[in-house]
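Look at one record.

>
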Amino acid sequence: METVWQVWLQYPLAFEFNDSYLAAIVAHSYSAMSGTFLTNSEKEREEGNMPELTSSLWTHLLSDETLPGFLNPKYGQQQPPASSGGEEDKEKEGDRKKKKEGTTLHKFATPTTILQPNPKQVQLWMQVHFPFFEFPKNS
């Protein structure tokens, strides 16, 4: 999940879900509130009668009540480049051409784009690793 979040962070417009969806999956994987993560394989779930004894996490997360809170409203949108048409833009254009694919945050990706995350942009996933800690807001 950490890897998916890191890629989502660098390409948020390429994912139909938001980071809260990923955080909910992580939280439920430890909660034992559903049978989805109680065994190591589909075979063990079948042998342990998990579908009959427990509910599925996916049923909860994909329900009509829950799903809208996990959707990314910007999914599939192209982020327009900021441009004023002046000399400054020509310099920015040159800088952009020098950068490799995947080095800027919030790049747009089409369904056929190969996402190439930049390992130098890896961040600590505060929502998951420090879920109860209140961090001061930057203003």
In short: The chain has a mean pLDDT of 79. Residues 2-129 form one domain. The chain is about 40% helix and 0% strand.
